[in-house]
Design goal:
The complex is a heterodimer of chains A (250) and B (567). Chain A has 250 residues and is mainly α. In chain A, 64% of the residues lie in helices and 1% in strands. Chain A is built from eleven helices and one strand. The N and C termini of chain A lie far apart (74 Å). By secondary structure, chain B is an alpha+beta fold. Helix content of chain B is 35%, strand content 11%. In chain B, helix 18 packs antiparallel against helix 20. The relative contact order of chain B is 0.12. The chains are: A mainly alpha (250), B alpha+beta (567). Chains A and B meet through helix 2, helix 5, strand 1, helix 10 and helix 11 of A and helix 3 and strand 8 of B. Strand 1 of chain A pairs parallel with strand 8 of chain B.
């Protein structure tokens, strides 16, 4: 059972995530959008959306630090286990609560604003359940750790090595099996979230427009480069050289 | 060497606009007659003074569209720079809501038919197209048409506000007596588009060949910054697809030499389409002109003279084809904007270098003179009246020249001069050469301008070079619409709607051209007894529409007769 859950499932999830994203990008670029509902309502969105998004960005950073950086590295820097956990729990709880509050506002808005609810697909509803589930369970692990204080389960000795070992292609199933139940459930729901990710509106996160910081303001595009709305078929390339293609009669 | 680029531009002669909304309706039928774009009007016609669409879009202190100069005098987006945009991505700070446009609706027509018999007439209630619920119709795209509600809401026009403030509240709302005109608006296809600069995804682009600004629907991610960025609010959010959409200048038509739908269907024939040649490298500098009132001149300076050999040489260097240069020489928009200087850009102070120009209306002035019993065509009266009517002039100046009244006055004087000068010719009198002179024009140029504006032949209004035949394989729409990978009959893995979109143009260019220019019924020539109903204009009875009369009467034997003839 442990082998299936912690040794096989992660790879299935990764495969779904990667292949699903490639498939979606290949076949559904038109559907690749945030499907913003700001046109319908912006008063609640203005509060909820930034809360959720900035919160989740902090949560993501927290996960990356916690899962990727081995405990030995931080200890080498002189950060003790207690210091680390105190910080992680504090910031994690803060960001988690912020994210959850934002999400609750957004879900309330989605349910209560007529047009926004009308624009909510079944796909969205499933996604919201999984996303909220993962969030609440994650927050639960944090709160349980808070309550237990020094006796709290140290996920950096169980979950984190397992996470890193997945990418070494030698999953450390025992380490993960040793984690406590809240972590097990949180991770399972998390894996579900990543598995459905490419098929929901969450894909917009993969095209966060960071390149906006670097691109020129004015974009020129030639018909020549785009080849119109029909793709060039192999074997049907036009004859001629580059300058003849521009069609200038010199 | 200047970097010459070609730009398809439009001029609208506002004197001829009767506010019939035909352009809006045909445009809507062609482009935005779809779910998600119910409220979208790529072309709309506003009554001025009026609030416009969306309401008060010209109030840039609120909507933050267009460009502004920052403290160091550099051009920057009014809504904020790149970092600010990314930080406010999760909730766009100043995006208009549906309420600023209107809630699109339909009527529950079925109750008219299905209602049970009763004493009262059944009523078709308005139903919101957004929620499907009963709704109350309170606003629309042209709610204040013909100054409807002007006594109550006229002061809400941002330009009225400004003009009033500047004239120290002396003016009561006299516009409804003196002054009203229509302003049709499409996307400006700017040289320095702020929508494009605002797009985080880089999905909005300007075509190198003809300057048409388009949204790449596959790249747009729905961040909706362009809606804030465009000061004309001519980018709309499709609330079903979650993507930005905008006027395409009917590029599939323009590519094959046809005018846009709004221009083609314009009842007043007030639209002109043609090429500008401009210096692409000088655009940013021109848009950074410190004084707003100099922006009009700066924009004119960008536009190059298509008869200048140096310009032509540079254009050839850039690979602009010869027939395009020829079209640029004959361009009606160049003539109106730069040669005669009677067309003005809409709100040059937004610093986007808009490429849809307007000939300001003289008719409110002449109408007023006529009502007061003056001879509205007499040059003396007309010139004097233009000078005296400061309110309309100031209003027009707010629209077209960032408040510079002298420019607008000069244009109206030219239009008045043209009227007076041409009247003498029409009445067979000796034309007065001093009239054109008074406005700095020659008799010949006034006559040419009259030809272009008064006679306005189809070929002179629309000088649209075709996208290159040698490039036909690369055109977006011209290719045979059946023989490519994902064409009709070739479905994506998830059925008909998946995969890439099918091209927009359905009818062939040739068939359409034949039908429009022929003075006989379509398909008069024998098509071996077959008629393509798609190309039939309903005019006459093309042979082959019905069976041959002979064959119809002699029914069983008829078929054999026909076969005999064929043999």
């Amino acid at each position: 059972m442990d082998i299936v859950l912690w040794g096989v499932l992660p790879y299935l999830v990764i495969a779904t995530l990667v292949l699903g994203t490639i498939w979606r990008y290949r076949y559904d670029k038109f559907g690749w959008t945030t499907r913003s509902s700001q046109l319908y309502e912006s008063r609640l969105l203005r509060i909820g959306s930034p809360m959720f998004h900035f919160g989740i960005l902090v949560v993501v950073v927290g996960h990356v630090v916690g899962l990727v950086i081995p405990e030995s590295w931080t200890e080498a820097l002189g950060i003790t286990e207690t210091m680390y956990h105190g910080n992680a729990l504090f910031w994690g709880a803060l960001a988690g609560i912020c994210t959850l509050t934002g999400l609750i506002i957004l879900i309330y808005r989605r349910r209560k604003t007529g047009p926004v609810f009308m624009a909510t697909t079944n796909n969205d509803k499933v996604m919201y359940v999984v996303l909220t589930g993962a969030l609440i369970l994650g927050l639960w692990t944090t709160l349980v750790s808070f309550a237990q204080g020094h006796d709290a389960h140290n996920y950096r000795e169980t979950v984190s090595p397992w996470f890193r070992s997945i990418f070494m292609l030698q999953p450390d199933v025992e380490a993960m099996a040793a984690a406590t139940l809240p972590f097990h459930i949180h991770i399972l729901v998390g894996m579900l979230l990543f598995a459905v990710w490419p098929f929901t509106r969450l894909v917009h996160a993969f095209t966060a427009p960071l390149h906006y910081l670097f691109r020129p303001y004015i974009v020129y595009r030639s018909r020549d480069l785009t080849h119109g709305s029909r793709a060039q078929r192999p074997g049907w390339q036009p004859t001629g050289t580059q300058d003849r293609e521009r069609g200038s009669v010199r | 060497m200047v970097r010459v680029m070609a730009q398809m531009g439009m001029v609208m002669n506002l004197d001829k606009c009767i506010g019939c909304h035909t352009c809006s309706v045909t445009c809507k039928q062609a482009w935005t007659n779809r779910a998600g774009t119910e409220y979208v009007w790529f072309n709309n016609v506003e009554t001025r003074p009026g609030q416009g669409y969306p309401r008060r879009y010209e109030d840039q202190e609120k909507w933050r569209g267009g460009w502004t100069l920052n403290r160091s005098g550099r051009l920057s987006l009014k809504a904020g720079g790149r970092l600010k945009k990314l930080f406010t991505l999760f909730s766009s700070p100043v995006q208009p809501e549906l309420g600023d446009y209107y809630e699109p609706w339909t009527y529950d027509y079925s109750t008219l038919i299905n209602a049970p018999l009763g004493d009262d007439f059944p009523v078709a209630r308005p139903k919101s197209l957004i929620t499907g619920e009963d709704t109350k119709v309170t606003w629309s795209a042209n709610w204040d048409d013909n100054l409807g509600g002007a006594p109550g809401a006229g002061h809400l026009d941002p330009l009225v506000e400004k003009v009033r403030k500047e004239s120290e509240d002396r003016i009561k709302f006299e516009f409804e007596q003196t002054f009203m005109f229509y302003l049709p608006r499409i996307c400006e296809h700017c040289l320095n588009p702020s929508c494009m600069a605002s797009c985080p995804s880089g999905a909005i682009y300007k075509r190198e060949e003809d300057g048409i600004v388009l949204v790449d629907q596959d790249r747009c991610r729905g961040w909706r910054q362009c809606i804030t960025g465009c000061p004309y609010k001519k980018i709309y959010f499709n609330h079903k697809s979650g993507k930005a959409e905008k006027c395409t200048l009917c590029y599939p038509r323009v590519e094959v030499g046809l005018p846009t739908v709004c221009a083609e269907t314009c009842v007043g024939r007030l639209r002109y389409l043609g090429l500008f040649l401009y210096d692409a490298d000088a655009v940013t500098a021109a848009a950074s002109t410190p004084d707003e009132k100099d922006l009009y001149e700066a924009q004119l300076d960008l536009i190059l003279d298509p008869t200048d050999p140096e310009v032509l040489a540079a254009a050839r260097e850039q690979g602009i084809p010869e027939d395009w240069l020829d079209a640029a020489r004959r361009s009606p928009v160049y003539a109106l904007a730069k040669k005669y200087r009677v067309a003005l850009p809409l709100h040059p102070e937004y610093r986007t270098m808009p490429m849809v120009w307007y000939v300001p209306p003289l008719s409110p002035v002449t109408d007023l003179l006529k009502e007061q019993g003056h001879d509205a065509e007499d040059p003396g009266t007309l010139f004097g009246a233009i000078d005296a009517l400061r309110i309309p002039l100031e209003y027009l100046a707010e629209l077209f020249t960032a408040g510079d009244v002298d420019v607008v006055e000069g244009v109206l004087m030219k239009l008045a001069a043209m009227r007076s000068y041409m009247r003498a010719i029409t009445l067979g009198q000796e034309p007065d050469a001093s009239i054109p002179e008074a406005v700095g024009m020659t008799e010949e140029s006034v006559y040419e301008m009259y030809r272009l504006m008064g006679v306005a032949k189809y070929d002179e209004r629309y000088v649209i070079p075709k996208a290159h035949v040698e490039d036909a394989h690369q055109l977006e729409e011209i290719g045979c619409s059946l023989d490519y990978d994902e064409g009709p009959g070739m479905y994506g893995p998830l059925g008909e709607a998946s995969g890439r979109p099918v091209p927009v143009a359905v009818e062939t260019f040739q068939a359409l051209r034949d039908r429009q220019t022929a003075d006989h019924a379509a398909s008069e020539e024998s098509l071996r007894g077959r008629v393509n109903l798609l190309n039939w204009d309903g005019n006459g009875r093309p042979s082959g529409l019905f069976p041959e009369p002979g064959s119809a009467t002699a029914d069983p034997a008829g078929s054999t007769t026909v076969t005999d003839e064929q043999q």
